[in-house]
């Protein structure tokens, strides 16, 4: 469990968390990027860029 | 083996790969390309002692340069820069398919709104206008009338950056409410799914429903040819059923496979890692020889 940097609500995290992964805040809907796992640290995820994709 | 994974976002696809690689005891170096500085002559520290690099960059621009740097440093990378270069640009993608004799939707490229409008009128309505760079079905336009064509072209010419002034106009293919995504390694299909939607766009990213699809010999042949046409690698080949045959509309080079993983029984990540292991074995044999 850690705190959403956008709204301050608790964010539940799963066990196999990876740096670079995106988690959603279920309270405010913000996309949060995992920047560290021990302990978990979240930042606001970058906005979608036009050249993203597969 | 020692595997580098280029990324800027870890999606479910990357998690599946990471998990499989680690379970098999491989060393994995996650390389966040946002933190790298690519010197012309000297490789960043993260690239030392890697047997292979897997390009999973989310941003096309980064994928193109990062793969080129890998090759400049002499680090094997999948997919190759050549493959990324062709697949990332719809014009190059279509030209490669056409040159290889792979059936692909008829397409015009025009540089002005006037010339694009002529192409649109010639294709007739509906036809399709696509951005040359882009993914997930974004900014695709099905044009149903001249009024719509004029408006979309004006918007693209006025509001878009220079790539939107390259107008990629394509015939509209009457597909049976679905298209087919094939995940393949060097042209060998791993698994395939049909993506169905009531919407004309059937991308999984747009919420299309997915189900396993059994490839026939012709589809397998086209997947191999399409893969060869773009330089091979781990690819997502997209086909549409058109009459008695198929048409290949594009090949994706940083292919997402989480939707496919959910739709089929095949162990996707396992098969991809099998392929990576074979690649590395082949490279080391070449070096030894």
List its traits:
heterodimer, A: mainly beta, two-stranded antiparallel ribbon, 35% strand, B: 289 residues, Dna Ligase, domain 1, D-amino Acid Aminotransferase, Chain A, domain 1, 3 domains, 5-stranded antiparallel β-sheet, 37% helix
Low-confidence stretches of chain A: none
Q: Which second-level CATH architecture of the largest domain in chain B applies?
A: 3-Layer(aba) Sandwich
Largest interface: A-B, 15 and 26 residues
β-strand amount of chain A: 35-45%
Q: Briefly note the CATH topology name of chain A.
A: Rubrerythrin, domain 2
Strand tally of chain B is 13
For the secondary structure, the number of strands of chain A is 5
Number of domains of chain A: 1
What is the name of the CATH class of the largest domain in chain B? Alpha Beta
Q: What is the mean pLDDT of chain B? A: 96
Q: Name the helicity range of chain B.
A: 25-40%
- What's the end-to-end separation of chain B, in Å? 19 Å
Main sheet overview of chain B: 5 strands, antiparallel
Pfam family, one (chain A): Zn_ribbon_LysW
Protein name (chain A): Lysine biosynthesis protein LysW
Organism (chain A): Natronoglomus mannanivorans
InterPro entries (chain A): LysW
């Amino acid at each position: 469990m850690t705190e959403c940097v956008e709204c301050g609500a608790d964010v539940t995290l799963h066990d196999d968390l990876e740096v670079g992964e995106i988690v959603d805040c279920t309270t405010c809907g913000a996309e949060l990027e995992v920047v560290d796992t021990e302990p978990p640290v979240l930042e606001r995820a970058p906005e979608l860029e036009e050249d993203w994709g597969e | 083996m020692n595997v580098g994974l280029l990324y800027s976002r870890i999606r479910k696809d990357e998690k599946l790969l990471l998990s499989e690689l680690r379970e098999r005891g491989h060393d994995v170096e996650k390389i966040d390309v946002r933190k790298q500085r690519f010197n012309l002559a000297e490789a960043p520290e993260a690239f030392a002692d890697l047997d292979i690099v897997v390009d999973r960059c989310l941003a096309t621009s980064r994928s193109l340069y990062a793969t080129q740097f890998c090759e400049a440093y002499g680090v094997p990378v999948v997919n190759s820069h050549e493959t990324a270069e062709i697949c990332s640009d719809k014009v190059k993608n279509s030209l490669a398919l056409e040159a290889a004799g792979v059936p692909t939707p008829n397409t015009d490229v025009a540089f002005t709104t006037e010339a694009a409008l002529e192409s649109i009128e010639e294709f007739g309505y509906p036809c399709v206008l696509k951005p040359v760079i882009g993914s997930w079905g974004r900014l695709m336009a099905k044009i149903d009338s001249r009024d719509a064509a004029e408006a979309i072209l004006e918007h693209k010419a006025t509001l878009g950056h220079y790539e939107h002034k390259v107008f990629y106009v394509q015939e509209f293919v009457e597909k049976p409410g679905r298209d087919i995504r094939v995940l393949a390694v060097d042209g060998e299909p791993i698994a395939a799914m049909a993506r169905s939607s009531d919407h004309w766009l059937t991308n999984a990213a747009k919420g299309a429903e997915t189900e396993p699809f059994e490839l026939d010999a012709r589809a397998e042949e086209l997947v191999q040819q399409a893969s060869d046409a773009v330089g091979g690698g781990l690819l997502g080949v997209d086909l549409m059923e058109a009459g008695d045959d198929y048409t290949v509309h594009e090949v994706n080079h940083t292919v997402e496979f989480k939707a496919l993983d959910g739709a089929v029984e095949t162990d996707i990540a396992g098969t991809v890692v099998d392929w990576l292991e074979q690649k590395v074995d082949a490279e080391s044999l070449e070096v030894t020889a």
